[in-house]
Amino acid sequence: MRKVRVYMVDDHDIVLTGLTSTLELAPDIEIVGSSTDGGTALADIRRLLPDVVILDLELPGLPGREILRQIQEDRLPVRVLVYSQYDELSFVAETLRLGATGYVTKSISSLQIVEAVWQVKNGRCYLWPAYSEQDIADYQRRTARNHHRSAELSQREREILILIAKGETSSAIANYLHIDVRTVENHRYRFMKKLGLHNIAEITRFAIEHNLIRAEIE
Question: pTM of this prediction?
Fold first, then answer.
């Protein structure tokens, strides 16, 4: 039986060392390379064409999500197992949408990571902690509806939503945008009604799920 050729990407050497120690114990897995930098990793993946890439999302040089996009865009015959510290359903659903075959958190056991590599290599979706297909489908439908509604926001409403999600008060937003507080509150009322949001926690969750805060920072 041919060994599964694995390439690993994580921004911490200690994580790569731990993965290497675990996977080298599996006689049917071969580690063909690793990197702590996203740009280097993508170049290596294109050159080596491993069977499975174990991919962290937070990387210097090139984010894990962009590596996923490039793998799909280039139609590389590579399967991706996302290896992340985050267990939120939004991260799982988004990476699966971008083309990942599996998603596991860094608390996974040694035996499970080996099993995950094999399942992903064979094209089976492996998730840990386990999420049902229905959980993911419901989330994706909900996100699609919200994307449609978010397109209806004006530029000013979007700006105020982002600032609220980042923890700014109405008075601070008014000063920053050079408008009065009443105008801020009116915009807030309108976008919350459009999006079906009811409080600051929901505004923040919406901004994170739709990468509005991340896009603003970058």
Answer: 0.66
Strand 79-84 relative to strand 4-9: parallel, antiparallel, unpaired? Answer: unpaired
Within 13 Å of residue 72, how many CA atoms lie on the same side as its CB?
14
What is the DSSP code (8-state) at residue 21?
H
Neighbours of 48 (CB within 10 A): 13
With a CB cutoff of 8 Å and minimum separation 6, the contacts of 62 are 37, 38, 39, 41, 42
* Assigned CATH topology for domain 145-217: Arc Repressor Mutant, subunit A (1.10.10)
Nearest to 143 by CA among 95, 94, 99: 94
Give the whole-angstrom CA distance, residue 42 versus residue 18.
Answer: 21
- The angle at the Cα of 135, spanning 8 to 190, to the nearest 5 degrees, equals 105
Interval 84-126: pLDDT, tens: 988 888 788 888 888 999 999 999 999 999 999 999 999 998 9
What whole-number distance in Å separates Cα of residue 168 and Cα of residue 7?
42
* Nearest-angstrom CA–CA distance, 129 and 78: 23
Contact (Cβ atoms closer than 8 angstroms) between residue 60 and residue 9: no
pLDDT tens figures, 128-161: 887 777 777 776 676 666 665 666 788 899 899 9
User: Among 3.40.47.10, 3.10.129.10, 3.40.430.10, 3.40.50.2300, what is the CATH number of 4-131?
Assistant: 3.40.50.2300
Domain boundaries, the chain: 4-131, 145-217
